[in-house]
Amino acid sequence: MPQNHHPHLWPPFTQVSTTPPLERVLRGEGALLYRDEGPPLIDAISSWWVTLHGHAHPHVADAIARQAETLEQVIFAEFTHPQAERLADRLAAKTGLERVFFSDNGSTAVEVALKIAIQWWHNKGEPRQQIIAFDGAYHGDTFGAMAVGARSLFSEPFDPLLFPVARIPWPATWWDDDHVEQHEQTALNQLEEALKTPTAAVILEPLVQGAGGMSMVRPTFLQEVEKRVRNAETLLIADEVLTGFGRCGDFLATQRAGVKPDLVALSKGLTAGFLPMGVTMASGAVFDAFVGKDPSLTLWHGHSFTANPLGCAAANASLDLLEAEPDRYLGFEARHRSRLEVLARHPGIRRVRVTGTIAAFDLVVSDQEGYLNPAGKVLRRLARERGVLVRPLGQVVYLLPPLCISDEQLDHCYSVLQEALDLLGT
Ligand code: PMP
Asked: pLDDT-based confidence at 348, cuts 50/70/90?
């Protein structure tokens, strides 16, 4: 029986019979969430990795309010509008990818990237179906995004309906990992083998696989992947839904890795976490194959809320903030690193790793690792009781705070983790 959850809400990723009722948040400010009971919580996971500059940031809030009084929505197949044009210009300049296709969230940004890749080959008169993806990947919960994501508990009922994908191992690494070269070589060998079949695209989460367990790879691995993609003359799709907008210590993770994808999916930080929106960026060479008199060349895809002016206003305001203070994301890794070096000495953790604003480690557990491993849940409760919101992925614990988090707040997150680890007794 549901444990006194709200009678009409169906929360995501939640089994209501085994989860206590969800707490109610009344407002947010900076890194803090204010509940109707209890002291404020430090949002150390940016509320599913979306809150980029902090909750209720006044610059973004004002931009949305002003836009709401000016133009809230307009059919984007008939009209453009100043916020969309400005945002497209800025994203093109920052990413080096010429075209911006708007949609509603991370999953749709990935769906659109996949559809563009498949239709690109179709339009060129050389249809290709094979997509190559990586073990452990998560690209969203719609059908195409699920298909390229790892098969898991989440996808199980739908597995028979998901299109097949060639799957390559993901050579995740961490501090003091002695086997990384070997793992990378195995992955690259398998990639070369898979690329012998004509391939429409290779899709990956650059530098950090998110929901799959904050699994990090080295930039050089991505460069080797790119070389092989180029040799096979196929397309590279970077799913930067999580990693974009400074999360990995550069504007894009692919920029930090020195890799140039043909298509990039963006969402989450795009609107600073204020409004749901996604974009798929495409190179000029990709776009060109969709231009011509034959109607079948058109990308017949669109959403009611395409290029929603409020979302575009939020995204422009967020870019203002990123441009005004780039050190906030460029320098975040050092803030994690100094604190993580201390925590890494704890015997209860292993596989310590950091990329940009994302710090992660695994709890040492005796039972099976994975999303259902209970150790993280205990740590989550202990941290919550001490004023910090974390949401481990099974035994994987991570911090992914908003850029505005103060040094004192970050110190508090780390000391709470230290205390929770002591209490866990691992
Ligand atoms: N891709 C990645 C890498 C993600 O992390 C996520 C969401 N966690 C998605 C796609 C899907 O985004 P959304 O939940 O907005 O559909």
From this structure: very high
Closest Cα partner for 50 from 270, 352, 379? Answer: 270
- Nearest CA-CA partner of 262 in 343, 183, 202: 202
The 10 Å CB-count burial string (b at 16+, else e) for 335-349 is bbeebbeebbebebb
Which uninterrupted H or E stretch holds 231? helix 219-231
CATH number (domain holding residue 411): 3.90.1150.10
Residue 303, C-beta contacts closer than 8 angstroms, at least 6 positions apart: 102, 103, 104, 108
Joined tokens for residue 126: 């050389």
d(CA 397, CA 114): 31
Ligand 1 atom at minimum distance from 243 CA: 3
Is the distance from CB of 157 to CB of 139 less than 8 angstroms?
no
Examine the pLDDT at 161 and tell me if it is beyond 90. Answer: yes
- Total domain count, the chain: 2
Protein residue with least CA distance to atom 5, ligand 1: 242
- Gap from CA of 139 to ligand 1 centroid (Å): 6
> Which mutation among 111, 138, 355 tests ligand 1's pocket best, with the greatest number of atoms within 8 A of CB?
138
Range of the domain at 250: 71-324
Q: How far is the CA of 241 from the centre of ligand 1 (A)?
A: 6
| pLDDT tens-digit readout, 273-302 | 999 999 999 999 999 999 999 999 999 999
Which ligand 1 atom is the nearest neighbour of the CA of 210? 5
- Nearest C-alpha neighbor of 41 from the set 269, 272, 381: 381
Residue 227 placed within a domain? yes
Domain co-membership, 341 together with 240: no
Q: Is the pLDDT of residue 304 over 60?
A: yes
Which protein residues touch ligand 1 with a CB less than 6 Å away?
105-107, 110, 138-140, 205, 210-211, 239, 241-242, 267
Residue having the nearest C-alpha atom to atom 1 of ligand 1: 139
Output the six-digit token pair for 249. Answer: 């210590």
Expressed in angstroms and rounded, the spacing between residue 419 Cα and the centre of ligand 1 is 31
Domain-located, residue 154? yes
Contact 215, 231 (CB under 8 A): no
* Overall average pLDDT of the 359-365 stretch: 95
- d(CA 325, ligand 1 centre) in Å: 26
Q: Do 269 and 50 meet the contact criterion of CB atoms below 8 Å apart?
A: yes
* Whether 420 and 390 share a structural domain: yes
